[in-house]
Write a structure and sequence with these properties.
Elements: E1 5-7, H1 11-16, E2 31-34, E3 39-46, E4 49-57, E5 75-77, H2 88-93, E6 95-100, E7 102-108, E8 113-120, E9 126-136, E10 142-152, E11 163-165, H3 173-177, E12 196-200, H4 221-226
Parallel strand pairs: 4-10, 5-10
Antiparallel strand pairs: 1-2, 1-7, 3-4, 6-9, 7-8, 8-12, 9-10, 10-11
Length: about 230
Amino acid sequence: MCGRFAQALKLEEWIEHFQVKHENIGEIKPSYNIAPMQMVPCIIYANNKRMVQPMRWGLIPSWEQNSKVGAKFINARKETIQIKPAFKNAFYHRRCLIPANGFYEWKKTKHSNQAYFFTLTSKKPMAFAGIWETWQNEEYESIQTFSIITTHANNVVSPIHSRMPVLLNPKVFDQWLDTSQSNIKPVLQMISENLMTYYPVSSYVNKVKNDGPYCIQKTTDHVQKKLIF
């Protein structure tokens, strides 16, 4: 699964890497420790242009009465997304990109859970494949929510976790966002695992309330003991 990630991109990365015009970006605050149920800037295609749309992480199907169900739908499996009632409509009609610097996974050790940060060796932004829905609460307020599509872990991630987010190649961004295309599953091909790397990070990231560059800082036992939380 993907349950935590970092999104601390520079403005020029939104503009150059994701081809979003400045006027369609809005205010974006960097976060190094994004968790489910938080608001996250995502990229959608609307009015013939890419736009940044803040959405809550945890998809709520439009027919659901209780918003708490979103906590169960933070990820959508690539293998079943076309048949799951909660996801299939969004898969065909509402797709998005979730920009990121990288994502976290944890490995259980003898004494604790060690966090690792997965990123690109180039340090360029990642793009998770996502789907989204609009849900209306009892006050008739519309809330946009999203889910990250996951797949079987590649050889880089598998030593730590069995699942990972689908990472899209920039060459297929347009195809993924274009909902007029129905045969879209072939687009969900992963970028080469040779482009990825990972390293251990401090237990500072384990607490959702902790944020900042410390979260993605490479650590050793010696460094970790010196950090004050």
